[in-house]
Amino acid sequence: MDVGHPVDSALAFVARFPSWRSAAPEVLGAFGLATAALWREIADEDDAEWKRSMAERAATLAHVLGGGL
Fold first, then answer.
1. What residues does each domain of the chain span?
2. Averaged in consecutive runs of 10 residues, what is the pLDDT profile of the chain (69 residues)?
3. Planar angle of CA 40, 43, 44, nearest 5 degrees
4. In 3-state terms, what secondary structure has residue 7?
5. In angstroms, rounded to a whole number, what is the distance separating the alpha carbons of residues 47 and 61?
6. How far, in Å, CA of 47 to CA of 30, rounded?
7. What is the dihedral sign for C-alpha 51, 21, 12, 29?
C-alpha cells in the first residue's frame, strides 16, 4: 500500500489466497489492529515520512477490516 495502491486494491490482491478468503472477519480485524499497532510503534520511534505513511495506511486497513481504531 505504501507505493500508492489503495486498500481496496490490496484487499483484492490478498483475496486470491484461500487462507485470506476463509479467515473469520474477527481474525481479519485483529490482524488489521495488530498491523496498525506495529506501524504506529515504528513511526513513533522513527519519524521518517515513509514510516508515518505506512502507519496511516495500516490504520486505514484496520478500519476497513473492521478492527476500528
1. 7-64
2. 79 94 95 96 95 93 83
3. 85
4. helix
5. 20
6. 25
7. negative
DSSP per residue over 19-65, as a string? HHHTS-HHHHHHHHHHHHHHHHHHHHH---HHHHHHHHHHHHHHHHT
Cα(5)–Cα(24) distance, integer angstroms: 24
From residue 66, give the alpha-carbon distance in Å to each of 32, 38, 60, 62: 8, 17, 10, 6
In the block, cell 490482524 appears at: 31
Query: Which 8-state DSSP code applies to residue 14?
Result: H
* CB contact at 8 A, 41 and 15: no
pLDDT score, position 10:
87
